[in-house]
């Protein structure tokens, strides 16, 4: 899935060079990883704040870059920072008073009745992903959307590889069950 990206060895080398003050390597590191970080944050449920959280992730990473020792790939290391950034955002949001969401979903849906079927499919997929428990959604996104290996995903999440495999398998089962024609008919 990551063929269009720079390979992990290049990204890790760039991160190490950037830690030594190489500006060109820093630019390469950020460009090579920015899309994955943003997509990961979106799929963790932070689509509205993905830009800000991506920026915060890179700010944290740049401060920590001199301590990066390449014990894992730079991409894995960076996604771990993104995960912690999202967790911090959730903790912060939970400590603040909540404001009621005033979006009129029916009116919004009516405005987009003529929308392209591709967009409808993306929306339906996102709705299915949103129904997954957070740990399963996270494992599925890391391995199937971003393209990390199970080992790399386990490093990002901080759990055994077998746990990631189990979460991905259960997520797939849930998605298949939720998208079956019988289930879709009962929802509609």
Structural write-up:
This protein has 188 residues and is mostly helical. It has one domain: RNA polymerase sigma factor, region 2, helix turn helix motif (Rna Polymerase Sigma Factor, Chain: A), CATH 1.10.1740.10. The protein contains 10 helices and no strands. The protein has helices spanning 8-19, 23-43, 50-64, 74-95, 105-111, 117-131, 134-145, 150-157, 161-178, 181-187. Helix 1 packs across helix 2 (23-43), helix 3 packs across helix 4 and helix 7 crosses helix 9. The two termini are 33 Å apart. The model is unreliable at 184-188 (pLDDT under 50). Residues 124-175 form the RNA polymerase sigma factor 70 region 4 type domain. Keywords: DNA-binding, Sigma factor, Transcription, Transcription regulation. Residues 30-93 form the RNA polymerase sigma-70 region domain. One of its GO terms (molecular function) is DNA binding. One of its GO terms (biological process) is response to stress.
């Amino acid at each position: 899935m990551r063929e269009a990206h720079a390979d992990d060895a290049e990204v890790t080398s760039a991160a190490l060079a950037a830690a030594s003050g190489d500006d060109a390597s820093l630019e390469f590191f950020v460009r090579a990883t920015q899309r994955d970080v943003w997509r990961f944050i979106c799929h963790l449920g932070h689509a509205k704040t993905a830009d800000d959280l991506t920026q915060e992730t890179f700010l944290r990473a740049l401060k920590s870059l001199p301590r990066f020792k390449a014990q894992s790939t730079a991409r894995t290391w960076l996604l771990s920072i993104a995960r912690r950034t999202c967790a911090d955002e959730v903790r912060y949001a939970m400590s603040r008073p909540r404001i009621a969401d005033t979006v009129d979903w029916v009116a919004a849906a009516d405005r987009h009745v003529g929308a392209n079927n591709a967009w409808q499919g993306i929306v339906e997929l996102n709705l299915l992903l949103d129904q997954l428990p957070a740990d399963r959604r996270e494992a599925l996104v890391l391995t199937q959307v971003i393209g990390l290996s199970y080992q790399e995903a386990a490093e990002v999440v901080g759990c055994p590889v077998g746990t990631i495999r189990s979460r991905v398998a259960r997520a797939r089962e849930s998605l298949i069950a939720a998208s079956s024609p019988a289930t879709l008919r009962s929802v509609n």
